[in-house]
Amino acid sequence: METFCKAGIISLRSLAIHPRNLFSLIFRVLPKLLCHSTGLLLKKFGEDGRVHPPSVGTSLGRMPELPQDILMDIFSTLEIPDLVRVGSVCSAWRSAYNTLRDNGQYKRSQTPCLLYTSESAGENVACLYSLVEKRAYKLTLPEPPIRSRFLIGSSHGWLVTVDDRSEMHLVNPITGEQITLPSVITIEHVNPIVDKSGVVQKYELSYHTARQMLYKPSDPKHVKPIFDKFEVVRKYEPTERKVHYEPSVFAVDELREHLHYKAFVFPETSKGSYIVALIHDPLKQLSFARAGDGKWTWLPPYTDYEDCSYKNGLLYAITIMGEIHAFDLSGSVIMIKMILGMTENVMHDSIYMVHAPWGDLLNVWRIVDDEDANFDSIDHVLSTNEIKINKVDTTAKRLEEFKCMHDHVLFLGHNQSLCLSTKDHPHLRANHAYFTDDYDLYIHGYKNSRRDLGVFNLKNNISEELVSPQPWSNWPTPMWITLSLAKMTTE
């Protein structure tokens, strides 16, 4: 790996097209030009790739000082790895960095990084692979060890994790900030089993839906099939007879394998707060919690959710059959609106929903090739062989095929789905999708299998690896994260 001051050469043409690259290059070579030791500059994102706290009170000798407002204007153009580095150069630059961060003035859109762990790096270390610099960094995270947790999502710079007692935390891998989310026992379907001292020993998981029942689709006595015009069964309608499943009991470290699926963190900028949305079993139902809440709030009556998004105070959620619902969480009574009904001719293994920068709501299908997969082997491999993009016509309530992303890219996986512009992120490849593994069987199992991870050309349906061979481990499942220095309000 090249060190910080040995970064790849940026062409003059690239610098002319993308002035931000020039700023980055200046800060990469300026300390060297001033005969300054590279050791000082690499305190945070170091030569060894490990992240360390920046030093304070250092000096660059006779280096001319710029006014802090000018420094802040320049620093605001940098991505976080470069920003943290320049904040380590001297006390004046550190002050500008702190002011920019603490005042909330730093809002530069970040190029996503791939977050993963490595057994050789240590139990508390997370690794970040930078798509801009084509290199990896190591970050030490707070207890409990990141490799002992399940990763169930990332949004806006935050990881959503589940520890070995099935409790959830938010973790910012850059700042090290950690926030405890409401206890798992406050989820509608979970009840604690405690000992005489009141300590939770096990969890009881109920399988009811909003109707307080669950029907077996395979039992014709309790359901009737609903066919589409192609005579394909699309859903089952319950008959009069109710069927209840008995709750299951799990050890404290086992519940997370049966309950948690995917989670999202959405800032409520108008309130200076945030919302965490959680897709969970049974049947991938939806719950949410706000900053400061003591419990999770259940959002019935629908099931089978796969992805979520948030815009203008509305929480959007899409089901495996393509239904899109919008929950208005702003009032004392939660209102739900049907944005799109069930999609016909559904052919996908994963489904995503993303708000595009130009305003459209996109429905994305991902199709995985598993014909050659041997599910009895830990070495079986799945591979993405097609990604289809549809625009949601919210007026006509239908899908329109979207042929080309032009100068935009997608990020798909077990994280918040993203659509970004290559004008803002010139290191990304236009009309491509960057994807990581999110196949259900892989989230909690097949820990030693190679992950379905790479860059997908949306024009010719060809997939390429990010790095060959893949340097990252396979557990917990790697995911995309957009770095953030923002503090999270917990009240």
Commentary on this structure:
By secondary structure, the protein is mainly beta. 12% of the residues lie in helices and 33% in strands. The chain has helices spanning 12-17, 19-33, 38-41, 68-75, 80-86, 91-102, 255-258, 440-444, and strands at 113-117, 125-130, 135-140, 150-155, 158-162, 168-171, 178-180, 190-194, 200-205, 223-227, 233-238, 248-251, 260-268, 273-280, 285-290, 297-298, 305-311, 314-319, 324-328, 335-340, 350-355, 361-369, 383-393, 398-401, 408-412, 418-421, 432-435, 454-457, 462-464, 479-481. A hairpin with a 4-residue loop joins β23 (383-393) and β24 (398-401). α4 (68-75) crosses α6 (91-102). The longest helix is centred in the first third of the chain and has 15 residues, at 19-33. Residues 1-18, 31-44, 53-60 and 213-223 have low confidence and may be disordered.
Secondary structure: elements and pairs:
Blueprint lengths: L11 H6 L1 H15 L4 H4 L26 H8 L4 H7 L4 H12 L10 E5 L7 E6 L4 E6 L9 E6 L2 E5 L5 E4 L6 E3 L9 E5 L5 E6 L17 E5 L5 E6 L9 E4 L3 H4 L1 E9 L4 E8 L4 E6 L6 E2 L6 E7 L2 E6 L4 E5 L6 E6 L9 E6 L5 E9 L13 E11 L4 E4 L6 E5 L5 E4 L10 E4 L4 H5 L9 E4 L4 E3 L14 E3 L10
Parallel strand pairs: 25-27
Antiparallel strand pairs: 1-2, 1-30, 2-3, 4-5, 5-6, 6-7, 8-9, 9-12, 10-11, 13-14, 14-15, 15-16, 17-18, 18-19, 19-20, 21-22, 22-23, 23-24, 25-26, 27-28, 28-29
Helix pairs in contact: 4-6
